Amino acid sequence: MRTADIIIAVVSLLVAGIVAMQVRDLPFLTEFAPGPSFAPLLVAGAGTILALLLLGNALLRPIEGLAPDEDVEPGARQRVALVMGLVLLQTALIPWLGMTLCIAGFTFVTLAILLRRPLLPSLATTIITAAFIYLIFGVWLQVDMPEGIFGI
């Protein structure tokens, strides 16, 4: 799992960097409340700390003490790598497709394609997730979420 930990840490650092770059022009605080970059920067910061801890643990752990990966289900590593790649892709596409559409795409691809869940429950979960993200953040909290070229 040493190699997997290093890969996951590096991808997590990339995602945190992309998020920080995308919100760098937004205010961190407003006069009375947190600004639109407040939560993304806190999450990116926490992700950076966790990724650095994981990377440090993977690099400093003695190699001879590693147990074989016999208990890892076949295909599990590939699914983890695909989900991490999907997170990177979603993060990169948010400015063009918008937050709600990217969350919907990520949820559907993860459930229906990567995890091979039934189509209708995957579709229902996707719609509910996207609707809740939009309603909670876009409508209720009035967060200025990226809308993308489709205005969603």
How would you describe this protein?
The chain is mostly helical. The protein folds into two domains: 1-71; 75-152. Helix content is 68%, strand content 0%. It contains five helices and no strands. Helix 1 packs antiparallel against helix 2 (38-60), helix 3 (76-97) packs antiparallel against helix 4 (99-114) and helix 4 runs antiparallel to helix 5 (119-140). It starts with a helix and ends in a 12-residue tail after the last helix.
What secondary-structure arrangement, pairings included, does this model have?
Elements: H1 2-22, H2 38-60, H3 76-97, H4 99-114, H5 119-140
Helix pairs in contact: 1-2, 1-3, 3-4, 4-5
Number of domains: 2
Number of helices: 5
Give the overall shape. flat
> SSE order in H/E notation?
HHHHH
**Class computed from helices, strands and strand pairing:** mainly alpha
The first-to-last residue Cα distance is 40 Å
Low-confidence stretches: none
Number of strands: 0
Please describe the biggest sheet, giving its number of strands, its sense, and whether it closes into a barrel. Answer: none
Strand content: under 5%
Task: Estimate the mean pLDDT confidence.
Answer: 86
Q: Kindly state the percentage of residues in helix.
A: 55-70%
- Please state the CA-atom Rg, rounded to the nearest Å: 18 Å
